[in-house]
Design a protein that fits this description.
The chain is mainly α. It contains 2 helices and no strands. Keywords: Membrane, Transmembrane, Transmembrane helix.
Length: 156
């Protein structure tokens, strides 16, 4: 028994599917019944598609915000953790090569904590650095005609 295939519903595919179905011995009443059911169902399908489009349009910003917040937290938490993990692996290898297995096992945690605290101290010192001049970093004055001439702004 032949099957009625209407393709993707795009005009030529539909006509070719109907012609193939009829030439293979299909019934014209099946085609007519399918056409009537399709005409009756198409407004319902179109309405459902419109409602889905409106729902997708209204929820898309919230879905995007949720994904971006998840990515932000992932970057803020797992990125530094992976960096600390890589640094601790390198520190472990270096400590083992310098002090040997036994002493490195004893000193690994204190040295790793000391390195982490030292790097945090360097970061905090850099972030607390006072503004410098416009010619060289660390120079406490601006050289005229070089760089941006801005009025000093008090930091709050």
């Amino acid at each position: 028994m032949p099957t009625l295939s209407l393709g993707d519903g795009g005009g030529v595919d539909t006509l070719n599917g109907i012609a193939t179905y009829l030439s293979d011995g299909g019934k014209a009443t099946t085609v007519l019944t399918s056409s009537i059911v399709g005409l009756l169902a198409s407004p319902v399908v179109a309405t459902i598609d419109i409602i889905n489009a409106i729902a997708d349009f209204t929820t898309a910003p919230f879905e995007g915000a949720g994904e971006s917040i998840a990515t932000l937290f992932d970057g803020l938490l797992t990125g530094p953790a992976a960096l600390i993990q890589a640094g601790s692996d390198i520190s472990e290898t270096a400590i083992r090569s310098v002090f040997g297995e036994t002493l490195a096992g004893i000193l690994a945690l204190p040295l790793t904590v000391a390195l982490a605290l030292a790097s945090l101290y360097l970061l905090a010192t850099f972030l607390n650095e006072e503004e410098t001049g416009n010619l060289f970093p660390g120079l406490p004055f601006d050289v005229p005609y070089i760089g941006a001439d801005e009025e000093p702004v008090d930091d709050m």
